[in-house]
Amino acid sequence: MLTHIHIRDFAIIDTLELELHPGMTALTGETGAGKSILLDAIGLVLGDKADSSTVRHGADKAEITLSVDITQTPSARVWLEAQSMEGTDDTCILRRVISAQGKSRAWINGSPANLTQLRELGEQLVDIHGQHEHQSLMKKDAQRQMLDAFAANEALLDNTRRAWSAWKKLHERVTLLSSQNQQHQERIDLLRFQSQELETLALQPDEAEQLDEELNRLANAEQLRATAAQGYAQLYDDEPSLYSALGRLIHDLSQQVRVDAQLEPSLELLTSAQIQVQEAASQLRDYAEGLDLDPARLQWVDNRIADIRSLARKYRTEPHELPTRLANIQQELEQLGGGDYDLNALEQQLQAATASYREQASLLSQARQQAAQQLSAGVSHAMQQLGMQGGKFAIQVAHDSANTFQATGMDSIDFSVSANPGQPLKPLMKVASGGELSRISLAIQMIAAQKVTLPALIFDEVDTGIGGGIAEVVGKQLRTLGTNRQVLCVTHLPQVASQAHQHYKVTKIKGAEYTSTGIVHLTQAQRVEEVARMIGGVEITPATRALAAEMLTTGS
Q: What per-residue confidence (pLDDT) applies to 481?
């Protein structure tokens, strides 16, 4: 609910501080005193467009600050958190400054805000009736939201939104793949060819390095065998050989070591050397005998290396990285061939999602149509109580299966009204009379009040064109609305003002060089005088005061 408003240098207001309270609050005063200026100021701080004409003459800027208690408004809390504009307590502060040059700035809880943000937040806090630009019922979305709230369609809406989200995701995927189908298939064909090519190569780990070593060995096999054979002969087979020479030296030292033991280490080393020479000679012999001089093998290895290097150049990678490249190609091919890229499978899923969405949207539409009949009948009855005898209200819910899929269903919802007997139903937004529109809005609120959760309602002269008992009905209904929310009502009728929980009087203050607007919170005695003025005009008699006191007693 609105708790406090501060206005400075706005229109003809110099400075104004106003504390607002729960329940119904009446705003009264002489014609031209500036009652609507207060509502205009609230409208501006909720995102209305402004220009330099709103700044009081002679001032540099106009300032409007509105404090709102959001304790019972969870949607506003969620919105503020999403915008990172949450405050430190349960009070939300909206501020708007308009310069004399027409420039405007705004803040929400001290954070800079634009007009769109002001409007989005304001629509969750306040509903102003009687001013077309602030009348939420003039908006298609608001009409749908009110009908859904009245019908308690939260679960059906959630189901429809989820079905729509699933459909939308699949629809976008199918559309994308359909437009890219040729490129997609070409990519698959290329990857399949590359995979087959690399699979045919069948390169094993470390094979490239091993083949290089084998090629080098085969290409030099003759020289390697000759060197090994020559080494074997020199070490063991020739006469004299190194092995036989070591043998004779070892024999001689064995004789002399008996004479001098200091020769023992040398004898041991020579004995070990002879053994190693024999082993080396055996290895060289075996190597020479086992060395393959197969030209066919040499040619195969050379061709194999050429094939490997050719594919490595083709894929712009090193030969040893070709197995990794094959694994990557196979992985991508598996992904492209999976369900996410299977156009036929996705189209079948899309058909199922479409059917599911249509089913949910149809259930939602049926619930809306039933609620529309109930709400239409209730509002039509309320219109009779509010002085619109013969008036009729109707909600048309048109479910068109050819409509574009939306998260909120496939219905076209229109609020229509006939204000007088014999007149055809017309869209609510085309109702000519502002007073009729306000009373129709009041009638809708009377029926849907238990469903609509806006914390503050403002009615601007909803009593236009009515009087007597009808005005009393309007006042009682406004007071009823004020039992569970805040209602601000600008009125000229004593029957309405007397029903309010609080009463403010707007006055015009005339000075020597300027005119300003003031506002006074009336005491009980002052309320009697104000209601008496509204009843009797300039001449207020004791009888008029008595009637005013009686109306206030009855109203409270």
A: 84
DSSP string covering 25-76, please?
EEEEESTTSSHHHHHHHHHHHTT----GGGBPTT-SEEEEEEEEE-TT-HHH
pLDDT of res. 428: 79
491: amino acid identity, one letter: T
Please tell me the predicted confidence (pLDDT) of residue 447: 78
- Burial of 201 (C-beta count, 10 Å sphere; 0-12/13-18/19+): middle
Sign, CA dihedral 496-125-394-421, equals positive
Give residue 25's pLDDT: 94
Given a contact cutoff of 8 angstroms between Cβ atoms, the answer to whether 62 and 24 are in contact is: no
Distances (CA, A) of 97 to 8, 47, 72, 422: 10, 12, 28, 49
Q: By the 8 A CB rule, do 50 and 104 touch?
A: yes
If you compute the radius of gyration of the chain from its CA atoms, what whole number of angstroms results? 48
CB atoms near residue 458 (< 10 Å) = 24
**Which two tokens mark 544?**
């008029």
Pick out the chain residues at pLDDT < 70: 32-33, 130-136, 179-185, 337-342, 431-435, 438, 448-453, 462-465, 511-515, 537-538, 556
3-state secondary structure of 104: strand
Q: Is 372 helix (H, G, I), strand (E, B) or coil?
A: helix
CB 92 within 8 Å of CB 67: yes
**Phi/psi of residue 206, each to 5°?**
65, 10
Tell me phi and psi for residue 432, to 5 degrees: -75, -40
**Per-residue model confidence (pLDDT) at position 437:** 72
The per-residue pLDDT for 206 is 86
Q: Work out whether the CA dihedral 355, 361, 365, 367 comes out positive or negative.
A: positive
Q: Between 343-385 and 434-448, two packed helices, what is the crossing angle to 10 degrees?
A: 110
Q: What is the pLDDT of residue 180?
A: 56
CA distance 466 to 495: 11
CA neighbor of 294 nearest in space, from 225, 205, 233, 212: 225
Using a CB cutoff of 8 Å and minimum separation of 24, what contacts does 391-396 make?
Answer: 391/417, 391/418, 391/419, 391/420, 391/421, 391/440, 392/417, 392/418, 392/425, 393/417, 393/418, 393/440, 393/443, 393/444, 394/425, 395/143, 395/147, 396/372
Amino acid at 190: L
pLDDT tens-digit readout, 228-262: 888 988 988 888 889 888 989 998 898 888 888 89
Report pLDDT for 102.
85
**Among candidates 149, 166, 130, 135, which has minimal Cα distance to 35?**
130
Q: Please tell me whether the overall predicted TM-score, pTM, comes out greater than 0.85 for this model.
A: no
Sketch out the chain's domains with CATH numbers.
1-125+454-522 (3.40.50.300), 185-336 (no CATH), 524-555 (no CATH)
